[in-house]
Design goal:
- By secondary structure, this protein is mainly α.
- It has one domain (about 15-90).
- The chain has four helices and no strands.
- Helix 1 runs parallel beside helix 3.
- The chain is globular and about 40 Å long.
Length: about 90
């Protein structure tokens, strides 16, 4: 895996902290505890986006919106689609 510089939550400026908190607010509650945490305890996949706070927010808020319980698909269907896409992309998430 390629190494990239990330900013931990402890080193984050206000703009980055706001982006992280805002994306958490729209994410499904089941994603509150990271599967692959970084040294700060935050999600490593979120950490990989910390150099561009706007991109971090929009990328993860999009997923949160797509997983919304207000949509006509069930949570089970959402997860199945996400799993199939991850497998097709050979992604571990």
């Amino acid at each position: 895996m390629t190494w990239i510089h990330t900013v931990s939550i402890f080193e984050a400026d206000e703009k980055l902290r706001q982006a992280i908190e805002a994306q958490k607010a729209v994410y499904p509650k089941e994603y509150a505890d990271p599967v692959h945490p970084d040294a700060s305890g935050a999600s490593a996949i979120v950490g990989s986006h910390t150099l561009i706070p706007e991109a971090l927010y929009h990328a993860f808020a999009t997923f949160g919106a797509l997983m919304s319980p207000d949509l006509p698909l069930s949570r089970r269907q959402h997860e199945m689609i996400a799993t199939v896409v991850s497998v097709a992309n050979r992604c571990q998430y």
